Amino acid sequence: MKTSVGKVFSKIVILASGIIFSQQTLASWHLDPLQSELHFITVKNSAITEVHSFRTISGMVNEQGMAVVDIDLASVNTHIEIRDERIKDMLFNVVNYPEASLSAQVDLKALNTMKVGDIKTMPLKIDLSLHDHQQKIETKVSVSALSDGAFQVNTLEPIVIDINTFDLGEGVKALQDVAKLDSIATSIPVTAQFVFQPE
Question: Which end of the chain has the least Cβ crowding within 10 Å, N or C?
Answer without folding.
Answer: N
